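Checklist before submission:
- one chain only
- standard amino acids only
- sequence pasted in full

Submission:
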Amino acid sequence: MQLASSLKKIFSLSSLKRRLLFGLAVTWLVVVTLVLGMAWQSGKLMVQETNLEHMRFEADLLADEVTQQIVSRFRALERLAVTVGDTNDAELLRERLRTNDALLSLFNGMVVADVNGRVLADWPEIPGRQGLETADLEYFRMLRGTRRPYVSEPFVGRASNEPIVLVGVPRINAQGEFAGFVGGMLSLGSSGLFSRLSTVRLGESGFAGVATASGKVLQHPNQSLINGPVPDLGVNSLLDMALDGWQGDGIAELLNGEKALQSYAQVWPANWIIGLYLPLEQGQVPLNRLIQKLWWVWATLALLMLPMLWWLLGRELAPLRHLEKQIGEVGLGRRSSVTLATNMHELQQVANTFNRVEEERQQLLNHLQERQAFLDSVLSAAPQGMFVANIKGKITYMNPALLEMLGIGADVPMSAWLEQIHRDDRAGAADMWQHSLRSGSEFIRQLRFLRSDEELLWLDVHARVVTLSQDGHTLGLVGVVKDITERRVQEAVQRWEAEHDPLTGLLNRRGFERRLEEAFAEFQKTSTPSALLLFDLDHFKPINDEGGHALGDEMLRRIAQVVAWEVRRSDHVARQGGDEFGVLLPSCTLTQAKKIAESLRKAVNEISVVHEGKEYTVTLSIGVTTFDELDASVADVLARADAGSYEAKDKGRDGVVVNMPHNT
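Returned file contents:
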């Protein structure tokens, strides 16, 4: 009983000294817990940002290095193609490959193929490779169709039985025709093309990989995945976007469900994607260790300080009680300042500081009102749109120039006019806004805003976070808004005018040829059928000669309207110059194309213009053709359709002639 009574007396909180000590201990524990918790949360974001920044840098660096290696191999093969020439002499080709033996530092092997895709020579010579047929392979079709350097999809070599890619450049003869290709083979396991990836260090289980845009693995720490499909398709949203051409970084799940930091960069010449992956837990290991060390340091420091605090509190408590009493009297207005009759210098400083702060507080209250009035005047008089937002991101002030620009009143709530931001821009702007609030970075964004009068504006918004210079505390944001609608409209008009005929509004020759090239490349890859109609106007010259160019222009405009109305919305109509017209019919069979051509011919027959009582009409002589596997380029298709148009004229005009390779 006596021992229990003694312990109760020791741990009793009846005295102020013990209460203060207990309060300090509890406060210390709470502060440590909060600080470490906040440090963990903020540190986690900082570690993620730092890791993503490092991974972004590494991914870009790796992509640049691989790009340079691919480009250097393209150039080496182009020089070799010039040396090889357009000869098909196998012995001569082998001799020329031997004399360029130095290229084996860039490739595991080299081949030369003829116009039909048959391998004529290789170096070093491997039994079974000479004579291989490649005409049915995707890289031969791409080289023949585009006539540009190309890196193939990965495949297992039929002669070497190894996973390889072929870097190829077309051979062009003196007539500018496709004469075959020169190719360099790169082994995915031994070429050294991806040797830089092995030096990348991403924690204990992070890794780097390379894949094609079609979803085949080129490089991976797990060798069994090479030349196979990417395993994370449909699971990893960032990887799906990267395969569609996106590059950037973020956090997404891996195939095993583990979240990981990821960064992607594109190797455009080869159509490859480089990806870096670091499991989220691995990236936070240093932070976990730091937090654990801090916790033990703070806990040890607290235990060491408790005895000293006990002693200090007993000594200093009496003067503090006196100071507390006087501060209370100042707060109640019973006195204007604090005076202490003590020789303790620290308490005298506290009293003096309190008196000075009280005096400055009164002065600051007066100055604050003056500054607020000055700021309101500056913002109201500014010709540019300006706004102020608080630390939570809510816009608390917009100057008159901005209100007039947006066509809203000062009493309209923020939630209402935010709905007037274009829905395609709203989510992205909100994410960037929150990011600026969290990170303290500038907010820079261009977005569309629909005024209440239905006028669509393009706005350039630039906001900067305002912080106190003493401690870096964030106060909010101040921003400037510019109306850039006129500039965006001018840019759109310039893009449209570059590919359209100003008289008819149809595509011009440049725009038409670009769409032909795109359709032809698609045909080379997927065999998607497309048709081409070419025609000029019969009996058009008398309209210009007798009625003048104004009458001729009117006839051209009417014909353009009718042709555009008769074809499908997915078709492309062009005025290539003068009275020459073309129609590209994507995904269209020859039978459909003939029907469309007949409908155009009949519709144009009904168009007329009148000058001085005389009515003028025109007819069409239309040449029809479709893309064919025998075509080496769009020039073959254009020539065939043009020949069909001339044949229609020779047969008496006002007709449709189908011209295919088997007809010639």
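Reviewer check: The mean pLDDT is 81.
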